Amino acid sequence: MRKLIVQMQMSVDGFVSPAYGDLDWQLWGWGDRWRWDAALKRDFNAVFAGVDTLLLSRKIIEEGYLDHWGRAATRFLANPDYAFAQRIVEARKVVLTNKLQASRWERTDIARGAMADEVNALKRQPGQDILTIGGVGFASSLTSAGLVDEFQFFVNPTAVGAGRSVFHDTRHGHALRLLGSTAYDCGMVVNRYAPA
Q: Is the pTM of this model over 0.90?
């Protein structure tokens, strides 16, 4: 069965979305200012090489995620650091929503069923892993439903003080098992966890 991987940027104090929205806290905010080192860029691309399906929220797709990376794939066609952008274009995309009637994006399907049913059906299909990138609300819903097989947290060397987390079970917490941790020269640490 395929894995569902949640990939998120995170602050050193554990928040994936800071309380103050204008705070410049990420080493890479998905624009042209990309302060990741070569090893991190290489490893990031390696994750995408093992993925053939992207699971996206309606919000991130409507905010231009696919359009942005489609332009980047064309603009940086020969740049190996942007190989992931071409992977985003080529991968199957699935948007979980009942608010869109049809997809206007290439290789993108709308899934209108219950979240657990749709995700479990995707996991049973043949293929490589499924990656979800995006909003804290969407990631939290997947986490609460017990659908996530691996968390990849890109921990930026910034503390934001307050914000939102993907974990919300304050009564029992979320026990995790460390799969790996890699520190990079740029100050980023990537921590990979599976539910315990």
A: yes
